[in-house]
């Protein structure tokens, strides 16, 4: 997991509320055992034409298919983003596609936790602020947003400025690039010392036993 402090990027606007995890990564793609390789299936049904002679072809009207939004590391979405099932694959698909942050008025609780553990910054702003940033990114694909995690601010190149709240522990993990494994490995030396002591006492030199 990479450490994130200041993220400056264009943003892909997805002005839809109640985007559930089955739309983010449909269930037929949950067979992989790795965390990688899900990006190509992100919003699979929405990114492709569903009927007619061009069924299965990319839908050029969908924001993530538009070349002007290619490379955006910030996704702007409607309220209740990530609702539905608790699949962690939704966060994997977003990060594998290249998104490092999502801005929305609200998030589903389980998705919010999963995304944070996988290195994504989730920013809650008011609906009015989200609508403004969405509109600016729709009107100008070069519209640039800066998320400063240390200062907990969101600014843009047109004078917008807002603050957001984040759990202090999650902020610490994101700033230092620590997932659950990384948090454990902070204590690697103590863990190794314990294992060595344990082996010496109970395996390499087992304690003597007495017969009753």
Structure overview:
The chain has helices at 21-24, 89-97, 109-117, 127-139, 168-176, 180-185, 188-204; strands at 6-14, 74-77, 101-104, 121-124, 144-148, 153-156, 161-163. The mean pLDDT is 89. It has seven helices and seven strands, in the order E-H-E-H-E-H-E-H-E-E-E-H-H-H. It has 212 residues and is α/β, with parallel strands linked by helices. The longest helix is centred in the last third of the chain and has 17 residues, at 188-204. It has a seven-stranded mixed β-sheet, sandwiched between helices. It has a single domain, classed as Aconitase, domain 4, CATH 3.20.19.10. Strand 3 (101-104), helix 3 and strand 4 form a beta-alpha-beta unit. It is globular and about 70 Å long.
Report the strand count. Answer: 7
CATH architecture tag: Alpha-Beta Barrel
**What name does the CATH topology carry?**
Aconitase, domain 4
- Output mean pLDDT: 89
Point out poorly predicted stretches. none
Strand content: 15-25%
Domain module count:
1
Number of DSSP helices?
7
Quote the distance from N terminus to C terminus. Answer: 55 Å
Class from secondary-structure proportions:
alpha/beta
CATH top level label: Alpha Beta
Question: Percent range for helical residues?
Answer: 25-40%
How would you sum up the global shape?
Answer: globular
- Please identify which CATH superfamily we are dealing with: Aconitase, domain 4
Radius of gyration: 22 Å
Looking across the biggest beta sheet, what order are the strands in?
4-3-2-1-5-6-7
User: What's the oligomerization state?
Assistant: single chain
**What is the H-and-E element order?**
EHEHEHEHEEEHHH
Major beta sheet, specifics?
Answer: 7 strands, mixed
């Amino acid at each position: 997991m990479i450490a994130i402090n200041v993220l400056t990027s264009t943003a892909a606007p997805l002005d839809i509320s109640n985007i559930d995890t089955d739309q983010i990564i449909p269930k037929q793609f949950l067979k992989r055992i790795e965390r990688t390789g899900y990006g190509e299936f992100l919003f699979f049904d929405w990114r492709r034409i569903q009927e007619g002679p061009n069924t299965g072809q990319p839908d050029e009207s969908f924001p993530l298919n538009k070349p002007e939004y290619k490379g955006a590391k910030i996704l702007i979405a409607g309220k209740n983003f990530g609702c539905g099932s608790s699949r962690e694959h939704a966060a994997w698909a977003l990060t594998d596609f290249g998104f490092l942050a999502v801005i929305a008025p609200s998030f589903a609780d389980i998705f919010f936790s999963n995304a944070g553990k996988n290195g994504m910054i989730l920013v809650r702003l008011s609906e009015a602020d989200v609508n403004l940033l969405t509109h600016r990114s729709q009107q100008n694909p070069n519209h640039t947003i800066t998320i400063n995690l240390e200062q907990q601010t969101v600014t843009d190149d047109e004078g917008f400025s807002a603050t957001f709240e984040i759990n202090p522990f999650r902020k610490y993990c994101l700033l230092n690039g620590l997932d659950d494994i990384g948090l454990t490995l902070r204590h690697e030396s103590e863990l190794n010392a314990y294992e060595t002591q344990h082996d010496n006492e109970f395996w390499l030199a087992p304690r003597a036993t007495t017969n009753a």
